[in-house]
Structure formats: structure tokens, C-alpha cells
Hints:
49% of the residues lie in helices and 19% in strands. By secondary structure, the protein is of the alpha+beta class. It has one domain: YefM-like fold, CATH 3.40.1620.10. It has a 3-stranded mixed β-sheet. Strand 2 (28-32) and strand 3 (35-39) form a beta hairpin. The radius of gyration is 16 Å and the shape is globular. The termini are far apart.
Amino acid sequence: MLKILTPSNLRANSYRILDHVLESGKPVAIKRKGRRLFIVGQAALLQASLITKDTVIHQHYPHAYWE
């Protein structure tokens, strides 16, 4: 489950939160003015950048075809 923090939590525990993201590989969200900002480790970011909508669709629906 994604941790959602406030900016105050981030400020008070920034080093602990950064270490958690690096060690666990799990992102953390900060909710600010109704929107979310994410702290994500490099490995997760690189992996996410390789995933496209087409590859996800193809993995779940291998026989589907779109022109």
C-alpha cells in the first residue's frame, strides 16, 4: 500500500522517509493542496519508464489487435 504523507510529516522525517524509499523500493506520496507528489527510487522510475500502455494491454490481452 502506498504511504501518503503530509508536507509536515515529510519535513519532520525527511531522512527516514528517503532511507525507507531507497531500502524498500516502494514510493511515498506527499499530498499537497489536493494533489500528490511522489518520491520514487531510481530503479522503480526506470522500470516504470519502460512500461507503455501497449505493453500492458498486450500482456493482459495477447490476442487483442488495435489498428
